[in-house]
Amino acid sequence: MSLKSKVFGAFGYLLLLVALVTALWGVWVVGLTLSNGATEGRLLAVLSSFGSAVTFGFFGYFVRKFVAGQVLPIDVDKSVAYRAGR
Questions:
Q1: Could you tell me which of 73, 71, 56, 72 has the C-alpha nearest to residue 11?
Q2: Cα(26)–Cα(36) distance, rounded to whole angstroms?
Q3: How many helices (H) and strands (E) in the chain?
């Protein structure tokens, strides 16, 4: 495994960790909102945390897939299946 793969792999895991932390923060703010009432700041925090969790989660997932070599190539139309077997 090359240094580049290790660095990008660690970066992918870091992004997934950030997604987990922001999701947990969002759950905590939802609980705080349910117990103490909704304010503009809390609602903004809920929306921001879950949006960040989804964004960081997908980005981390695809970085990890890229490092593993499991992302589809962009030039799939050059395949034999797309040339009708010719």
A1: 56
A2: 15
A3: 2, 0
Question: Of 25, 18, 24, nearest to 56 (Cα)?
Answer: 18
Q: What single-letter amino acid sits at 56?
A: F
Residue 13, Cβ neighbours under 10 Å: how many?
14
CA distances from 3 to 14, 16, 72, 80 (A): 16, 20, 23, 35
Per-residue pLDDT, 79: 59
pLDDT band at 45 (very low <50, low <70, confident <90, very high): very high
pTM: 0.76
Average pLDDT, the chain: 87
Distance of CA 25 to the CA centre of its chain: 16
**Contact (CB, 8 A) for 38 and 65:** no
How many Cβ atoms are within 10 Å of 27's Cβ, its own excluded?
14
